[in-house]
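Protocol step 6 of 9: fold each sequence in the batch and record its structure tokens directly after the sequence line. For illustration, a two-sequence batch is reproduced in full.

Sequence one:
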Amino acid sequence: MTIPLHPVSAVSALADALRRRVLSGEMPPGTPLPEQELSALYGVARPTVREALAVLVHEGLLRRERHRSAQVAEVTLADLDDLMFVRRPLEDLMATSLAGRRVAEADGALVRMAGLPGDAPWSDMVAEHMALHQALIVAVGSPRLERLYATLAAETRLGLVRLRAVYTDRDVLVSEHRELLDAIGRGPAETARRAVAAHLDHGWGAE
């Protein structure tokens, strides 16, 4: 039996390319993305650019005001502090629920993270970092917890871009996540909760 493959649309391809540039820190917060310039740079029609930008605006990675170019969303340190204020109780629930269990999907994300070459774009680290934490949340089995956590995804990803300057040695980030998964996997609940709290207690670099 032949399984047909669906080619990636120009809109999806452009959205992917721009997403990688944003999450690698190549396009810092506030960077404008004029449609005409992107159209010329990537050799695609402006309606394609417009649709790709709309995808990233919907994801929260870009912001757009009427009659102005889209720009990379800016997340301040105050925003990130508030983000962690909300994430901590959600991930505390996760730790309590999963204590003593291994989550295969989270372990897989860690393996992929550890296997990234040193020159891999930071966006690849962001993707696996997000996949690891998302896998833990999904493993709890609470659709409402999963939905609440998903609403924080865009700001979390933009915050992770800042960590590129904090984790100049990527092996440290991998090691911290390995310790986190080990602590949750071993349990008991109090140990898992303390490990999650410590994991989320980090700086974001300079403003």
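Sequence two, same batch, same settings:
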Amino acid sequence: MAMSNLQQSDPKTIAANGDEDREQPLYKTRDKVYPKRVSGYFRNLKWFALIALLAIYWLVPWLRWDRGATAPDQAVLIDMDLGRAYFFFIEIWPQEVYYITGILIMAAIGLFLATSLFGRIWCGYGCPQTVWTDLFMLVERYIQGDRNARVRLDQSKWTLEKIWKIGATHLAWVAISMITGGAFVLYFNDAPTVVVDVFTGNASLAVYVTIAFLTSSTYLLAGWAREQVCTYMCPWPRFQSAMLDDESLIVTYEGWRGETRGPIKRKNLARGEVPETGHCIDCHACVNVCPTGIDIRDGLQMECIGCGLCIDACNDIMDKVGFPRDLVRFDSVQNTQLRATGKATRVRLIRPRTIFYTFILMVVASVMMFGLFNRSVLELNVLRDRNPLFVTLSDGDVRNGYTIKVLNKEQANKTYILSVTGLPTTGLQVIGQTPNQDGSFNLDVAPDRVGSFRVFVAATPTALDGDATSFEFKVTDLETGNSETYDTVFAGPKTDR
């Protein structure tokens, strides 16, 4: 019977509690959030962050940097064709991907440090989801009106006014999303060239696919999902508490001062009478402006992004009713408790936790900087032939084949001298090259390129140390004397010793 009842029920519900069949929802239906417009200090900070971050995102690909005639002149560029990442004077090759790892580690530690100091300041001001959502809500508010107007519009029947307002909103969202996708591909292609190619239909399929994907994802996440991304998709809220302590600066509600809540008659305020209730008049202004729709008076919550808009809203109400500001404030839990007991408060940014994060960040940054400014501009890689391992020549000598790759990381033509050390060779040959008088070879490599050369090395069997003899290839910059070596082995026949 229980099985039949379960099969006949709505797939979104389940039967529970034994004999009594009670339908339980499997997921919570979304309560759409309609953030209200607010003005104030924190709102101005968010506008500044939005404008600055968008300006950086859209303008950086257009900056130029002279690297010479053979290299791209875009200041910040990830060149997938050449396999290079350029960041002003820094050039990262594919085998130097560990620098990218270091950057990610620094970003993570930096986020931990910022959170331990100022809570979710990244989420409230710097996260791309926050920036795009802010911009989308600005457009929505401009076309559809403020909170009450948007609520009425959503609840009204479909009319010509509703169609054009919602249609215009979504068209604007799509346009913003498309510009987002277009700006992203500028970091992987020469900006002026790819813009012309996109509008003339000459861009590659990868460019159009990338723009289409980012257009749709931005439109979906910033236009439709919004606070759902912060609440359900982002992992950061779920472990942010591990970075916080009682002295971290977060958005807090002064419950000792605000409770108990209740409305206040204006005539009592005019007479200067002290109300029996607390300073919170339960106007829900802090809730109405929250982009995630939470009530900060319930304490710090996973959904809170620390933007501080509730502080601006509450201060505006406090000014109107004649109460002191900062009932909702940007402060630490410890200071809230101290203020409740009439004790002096303090802000302590230098704490064991922040010292530890700062130390780790400085160590990682120092290691990366040391490696970056002391890395070699020359690299040598050698690949030995494995089929066959060796060839016996007509005179009895043994010959091995190798593919040598010389990486010239400088923006100039280079000539390198190839030599062999640690092996008494009877012959050294580079296909297509003429040997020098001492038996070495000159290898010419173009600027910022990899030179590939086919090399054969011969030796007598009696000079070999068994079936695998260790030796080195060495390349030396003819101009500067800078050299690199590569340890490899010479394969030969097994000998009884």
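Proceed to step 7 once all outputs are recorded. Observation for sequence two: Residues 74 and 389 are 45 Å apart (CA to CA).
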